[in-house]
Write a structure and sequence with these properties.
Layout (H helix, E strand, L loop, with lengths): L4 H20 L4 H11 L5 H27 L3 H20 L6 H21 L15 H19 L4 H13 L3 H25 L5 H50 L1
Length: 256
């Protein structure tokens, strides 16, 4: 399939925008996947998803590197979460085709609305200046949350970054900024786990994916710096905005 110059321009701009948004709070796939399918209507859905994963994992990894270097979350914990995320996301991707998305969407919409209400009515959540609490049941709770969210990312995906930020913030009683850095590392692993399944199935359009990955990295670096400059307050507002946008988006897909 040959792409015209105009198609390349639209996809590259879209990939950069998706990278910026994804680094900020997550949800870049809501932009890039529909854009790929709109610009290239003849492309099989599996190829669109796989090509988006290649771009997404590149941008997410670059944002994770920038945030971790500045925020410095616990490295030992992250290794455990990454291993769990790789395994569970791959498992989710392997069974994605057998699950009914029409059943999942209403559940995810209700969960997102609940998250939005909680954050809106508890302004102190995620704004603590402490290093957070570690050890005991919190370690196992975080591992369980990573496993569930990673499996969900392999199956369906929208809101993965947001759910990880909420889980880390709630379990460890830490601020949004540290949780965002941890979430980006784990989200990189979930993307890798799902991408490995897509690669094994031969679904990735490599030339398009690598090109979009470059644009996605540029956007992700801008997004990571936006997060660092804006701090926890910006992440809180972005999270609330994402809840609204994604709830509307999934509702249109479900009932539109």
């Amino acid at each position: 399939m040959e792409l015209e110059l105009g198609q390349w321009a639209i996809l590259l701009i879209g990939a950069a925008g998706a990278g910026w948004i994804d680094a900020l709070i997550g949800g870049g796939g809501l932009i890039l996947v529909p854009l790929i399918m709109a610009v290239l209507p003849g492309l099989p859905p599996a190829a669109a998803l796989a090509t988006n994963k290649l771009a997404a994992v590149s941008g997410t990894a670059s944002a994770a590197f920038t945030l971790v270097r500045k925020v410095r979350p616990p490295a030992g914990e992250l290794i455990r979460y990454v291993l769990v995320a790789l395994l569970c996301a791959g498992m989710g991707a392997s069974v994605a085709a057998s699950l009914d998305k029409d059943i999942m969407r209403p559940l995810i919409i209700m969960l997102m609305v609940a998250v939005g209400i909680f954050v809106a009515f508890k302004p102190s959540f995620g704004t603590t200046r402490s290093e957070g609490l570690r050890g005991g049941w919190r370690t196992w709770a975080a591992l369980a949350a990573v496993a569930v969210v990673s499996f969900y990312d392999g199956i369906f995906g929208p809101g993965t970054g947001m759910f990880l930020i909420m889980a880390f913030t709630f379990v460890f009683q830490q601020n949004f900024l540290k949780s965002a850095a941890m979430a980006k590392v784990v989200n990189t692993a979930t993307n890798l786990g799902a991408l490995a399944v897509f690669i094994a199935g031969g679904h990735v359009w490599w030339l398009l994916g690598i090109t979009l990955a470059i644009a996605n990295i540029i956007g992700a670096q801008l997004g990571a710096r936006t997060v660092l400059n804006g701090g926890t307050k910006l992440i809180r507002y972005a999270l609330l905005a994402l809840v609204v946008v994604m709830s509307v988006y999934l509702s249109i897909q479900q009932w539109g």
